[in-house]
Amino acid sequence: MVDTRSGAVGRLVETTASAVVLEPLTAGPEWTVPAAHVRAATAEEVAAALAE
Predict the structure, then answer these.
(1) Distance between CA 5 and CA 37 in Å, rounded?
(2) Does residue 51 sit in helix, strand or coil?
(3) Which of 3, 11, 24, 27 is the most buried (most CB within 10 A)?
(4) 3 state DSSP class of 23
(5) Across the strands, what pairs with 10?
């Protein structure tokens, strides 16, 4: 999933009616994103996030 506010790519942890919780594909803290600001990541975005 991509946080469209920042471009950060994360793995979906939790979904609520108005938000989702993502965790980084590598190390780092989880973060909450309003549901309107998240979309599916492309294969290229996932590969780039894993390479960081």
Answers:
(1) 6
(2) helix
(3) 3
(4) strand
(5) 24
Contacts of residue 32, defined as CB under 8 A and 6 or more positions apart, other chains included, come to 19, 20, 21, 22
Q: Is 22 helix (H, G, I), strand (E, B) or coil?
A: strand
pLDDT in tens, 14-48: 999 999 999 999 999 999 999 999 999 999 999 99
Residue whose structure tokens are 């790519």: 9
Polymer length of the chain: 52
Q: What angle do CA 38, 45, 3 make, to 5 degrees?
A: 20
Q: What is the β-pairing status of strands 2-3 and 38-39?
A: antiparallel
Residue identified by tokens 């990541």 is 41
Residues paired with residue 12 on neighbouring β-strands, in sequence order? 22
The answer for residues whose C-beta is within 8 angstroms of residue 3's C-beta and 6 or more apart is: 9, 10, 22, 31, 33, 37, 38
